Each structure stands twice: as C-alpha cells, then as structure tokens.
C-alpha cells in the first residue's frame, strides 16, 4: 500500500511540479486484475480502486493497517465508474451499475469485487461504530442543481452517503456531473478546515485535461489531471478545477464532522 504523509501549507511554496504530483495526485487508480490502495495520513483515509478482469478480487488488509481484515476498524464507500459489476459483502451480493454507490460498514469481514470492465473506486476512513451496508442506485441520492451556465459551472450534485441519506460514522460521499458546456467545479472555491476531501475525476475524454487548483487561497498551485486520476485535498487546501471538456467527479470527505455546509468560503477575488 502506497503511503502519503501529511503536509502543511508552509511546505507548499517550496514544492515543484514533481513534488506536488507526488504528494497530492494518484495517477493510477484502476489497474486491470488488481486492487490498488493509497494511505494518506490526512485523516487516515485510504483511497483505491478495484478493477476485476479475469476473476473476482478480494479486499485484504494490508500490513500497514495492523488489522485482521480491512474493515475491522474502518468503513468504506464504493462508487462504480466502469461497467456494471458486483460487490459481495460477507456473502451478500450487490449489483452496481455505472454510477451506483455502496456503503459498507465497520465489521464487514469479506468484500469481493467482480465483473470484467467494472471499476470500483474505494474511499475508506476509520470508524468507531457500525452502520448497515446500503446500496444507492444512480438517481436515488439527494440531487442538488448548482451553479449557472453563464459562469460555466452548471452541475448536478448527487449526495449518497450523508447525514440525511445513507448513514456512516464519518464518510460523506457523492458524485457531481457537470452539464454540457460547463467546465468549472466548486467555484467559488472553499476549504474544509475540519476534514479532508478527495476527488476522483472521470468521464473525461482521453485527450482532455483538468487544471485542478490547490493550496491556500493566498498561495495557490495547480495540477494537470487526466481521466480517472484522484486528488488528495488537505483540510487547509482549496479544491477546485476547470476542464477542457465537461466531466464528472466522485467527491468524498472524512474528518471532524459530516455537515455538508461546513466550509470556509474563498471567493475568486481572494485567490492569489
């Protein structure tokens, strides 16, 4: 399991492009026939991907977790961004079409992924209580229409795991789809000083890219991101971006609280 250690904003001015990418970008999430995992010490989140190819893949506990099984002390949010597939949790199978979200609670001992062409994005955080495993199909979450076509940020936000939906210990998770002709996400920007947020960008054409903004409002940097790559955004960092084409992204958070509106605004005029 790859390790990403926590950083603070004072380190940012000294980072070149290579170090920014090494610290905050996950360039290869989905490897056919494998489960990939990255442990970030920001809120002890584990990110990863499961891409079944020739048969099922079982989620084992890496040595770094010091646990008998992966979800002994954790919970897990899964979004399928590939072809339809199946996730089996302790013998119960769940069919996940493209865009479906499955929450798996602490204490689930066996998680198995299957389905050639499926791409299961994994977001896991420590949990101190257990909630039931729940499947949410596309269109079943809480839908919010945000932004405006005039500012190129009209988008549909689908809340799946949240306080008024599928319950969890600390994960908040959903999918945002930009409307055709819109390229900006999360603008005006903001930070979450009480939790870490991660993005997985997908549905981006192969020859398109996203310019992802990060850093403090007064000290911004950018990363060039391709389809199905993920970004780790520490609590002190903004997380916003603009694409050369419309796209979608999975957003997921964990930390101090689950209040979706708990954010610290950073209007465009404050960005440097």
Write structural notes for this entry.
With 272 residues, the protein is mainly β. It has a single domain, classed as Jelly Rolls (Sandwich), CATH 2.60.120. The chain is built from one helix and 24 strands. The chain has one helix at residues 17-24, and strands spanning 2-4, 25-26, 34-40, 45-51, 57-58, 74-80, 85-89, 92-96, 101-104, 111-114, 120-126, 134-136, 142-146, 155-161, 172-178, 184-185, 189-191, 195-202, 210-216, 219-225, 230-233, 240-243, 248-255, 264-266. A seven-stranded mixed beta sheet has the order 1-3-4-11-6-9-12, with helices on one face. A seven-stranded antiparallel beta sheet has the order 2-21-18-23-15-14-13. A hairpin with a 2-residue loop joins strand 19 (210-216) and strand 20 (219-225). It starts with a strand and ends in a 6-residue tail after the last strand. The model has no long low-confidence stretch (mean pLDDT 96). It holds the Pfam family KduI. GO terms for molecular function: 4-deoxy-L-threo-5-hexosulose-uronate ketol-isomerase activity; zinc ion binding. Keywords: Isomerase, Metal-binding, Zinc. InterPro entries: KduI, KduI/IolB_isomerase, KduI_N, RmlC-like_jellyroll, RmlC_Cupin_sf. Belongs to the KduI family.
């Amino acid at each position: 399991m790859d390790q990403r250690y926590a950083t603070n904003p004072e380190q940012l001015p000294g980072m070149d492009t290579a170090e920014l990418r090494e610290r905050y970008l996950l360039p290869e999430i989905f490897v056919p026939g494998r489960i990939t995992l990255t442990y970030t010490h920001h809120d002890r989140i584990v990110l990863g991907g499961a891409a079944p190819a020739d048969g099922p893949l079982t989620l084992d506990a890496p040595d770094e977790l010091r646990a008998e099984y992966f979800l002994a002390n954790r919970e897990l949010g899964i979004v399928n961004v590939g072809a339809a597939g199946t996730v089996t949790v302790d013998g119960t199978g769940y069919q996940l079409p493209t865009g479906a979200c499955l929450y798996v609670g602490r204490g689930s001992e066996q998680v198995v992924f299957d389905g050639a062409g499926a791409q299961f994005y994994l977001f896991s955080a420590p949990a101190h209580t257990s909630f039931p495993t729940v499947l949410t199909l596309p269109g079943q979450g809480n839908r919010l229409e945000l932004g405006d076509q005039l500012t190129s940020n009209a988008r549909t936000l689908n809340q799946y795991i949240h306080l008024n939906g599928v319950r969890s210990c600390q994960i908040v998770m959903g999918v945002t789809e930009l409307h055709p002709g819109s390229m900006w996400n999360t603008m005006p920007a903001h930070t979450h000083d009480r939790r870490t947020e991660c993005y997985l960008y997908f549905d981006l054409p192969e020859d398109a890219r996203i310019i992802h903004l990060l850093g403090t409002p007064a000290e911004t940097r950018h990363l060039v991101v391709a389809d199905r790559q993920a970004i780790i955004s520490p609590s002190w960092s903004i997380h916003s971006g603009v694409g050369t084409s419309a796209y979608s992204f999975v957003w997921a958070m964990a930390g101090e609280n689950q209040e979706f509106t708990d954010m610290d605004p950073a209007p465009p005029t404050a960005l440097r």
